[in-house]
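Pantothenate synthetase, Metaplanococcus flavidus. Tokens?
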Amino acid sequence: MRTIETIKELQQWVDERRAAGESIGLVPTMGFLHEGHMKLVERAKEENDTVLMSIFVNPAQFGPNEDFERYPRDMERDKTMAEEAGTDLIFAPSVGEIYPRESSITISPGRMAEELCGKSRPGHFDGVLKVVTKLFHLSGADRAYFGQKDAQQLAIIESWVEDFNFPLKIRRVGTVREKDGLAKSSRNVYLSDQERVEAPHLKKALDIGQEMVADGIDPISAMTDYLIENCSGRIDYIQLLSYPDLTENVEGEAILALAVQFEKARLIDNLIFTIKGN
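Tokens:
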């Protein structure tokens, strides 16, 4: 496995892969890898000749009061995990390499960014689309892999790729969880011991909500009461929307999603399912 840091090196590698007729699977990450990322690599290896992982903590998707500077980083650990999973190349650029100058051109995801996390993180998904657009172009990837835990991000990226005819396919990979149900996340390391005990209740609240939806009952109030009783964190949102278009006209595929702000970590989770009878 190689690690490179410059766009020039990446473009040379991509040219070599294309000349060899190899397909490329891209796994975009912000590092501090966990089992969820390894599942993305596993899926990418199944479907491509070679796997490229990007490790880049993207400042464009962090708000002024968010945790860019203290976002967990451990490049040596990441390299070991990525190599063991079968990654062929890590692209780990600096901020200056990706954003060499300030640009006046912006990307807006529009209505889809006004729900869920987008409500309390204005501009976040603008920054996500900014960096994935660069990575899609630079990597020459045939397929890119994203986890369903970040379901709103996934939906927006899928729409972006489809609406603007990007020449690659987006692959969804299911959420990877701890044995107690907590969704794997790089931010879980910021939970206190007590918060770590409480955090699995997010998944339990979702399970309760899904059962209520199946019975034709609005789940929001009951889920809110459950989390207030079992978690010390502040509820940011609980929403039931259609998926992947993220509207309140819920038919067929749906997403039940929530976010809870603990002292030093904001956790998100969701379930995507089909509402019977629709």
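The CA atoms of residues 185 and 264 lie 13 Å apart.
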